[in-house]
Amino acid sequence: MIEANKAKQTLEEMLKEANVKFNEPDCIQIWEVFKKFSKIKVNCSDDAMLFQCGVYDFTREELFSLGYVRQFIFEVDGEYDYMEQLEITIYFKPNKELEQFERDLWTYDCNSKKEFFSLVENMKEFYIPIEKYTPMKFEIEQEEV
C-alpha cells in the first residue's frame, strides 16, 4: 500500500520503467500502465477511476483530450474530509470526428474494475482516437478537488 502523496511519483516511475516517451506518447502503453497502477492499493477511504474525453480548453487552446483519472477520497472520523485526483491527460489536435466525442465513465457505474476497463476499451471514444490519431503530448497532475 502506498500513501496518496506518493501516487503521482509511483505512476511516473511506472511510466518511465515502461519506456513511455513524454514527447511521443503511446496511448495504449500509457493505458496499460494506468491499468497496472490501478492494482496498487492507496491509503484512502475510497478509490475510484474515471475515463473522460472531449474537446476542452484546459490549456487555453481547444484540444481533444483523453483523461485517465484515479480519485482518492479521505475521511476523518468516518466523515468526508477531501478528495484528490491523479490524472493522465493525453492531448490531440481536434478535428470534426474527435469533436463529436464526449464521454465519462466511472468505476462507480460498473460492477468491477475489470468491467470498467472492458467498457472503456470498447468505447469508440477510446479506441478511435488511439487508432487513428497521433497525440501531441500528455501530462500527469495530482491535485485536491
Summarize the structure in words.
The chain has 145 residues and is an alpha+beta fold. It contains five helices and seven strands. The protein has helices at 7-17, 27-37, 96-99, 113-121, 124-132, and strands at 2-3, 42-43, 46-56, 63-76, 79-92, 103-106, 137-144. The strands form two sheets. Strands 6-3-4-5-7 form a five-stranded antiparallel β-sheet. A two-stranded parallel ribbon has the order 1-2. Helix 1 packs across helix 2 (27-37). The chain starts with a strand and ends with a strand. The mean pLDDT is 94.
| Major beta sheet, strand line-up | 6-3-4-5-7
Distance between the termini: 22 Å
Provide the residue-averaged pLDDT.
Answer: 94
Topology as a string of helices (H) and strands (E): EHHEEEEHEHHE
* Main sheet properties: 5 strands, antiparallel
Shape designation:
globular
What portion of residues belong to β-strands?
A: 35-45%
Oligomer: single chain
Query: DSSP helix count?
Result: 5
- Rg result: 15 Å
For the secondary structure, the number of strands is: 7
Sheet/helix structural class: alpha+beta
Low-confidence stretches: none
Helicity range: 25-40%
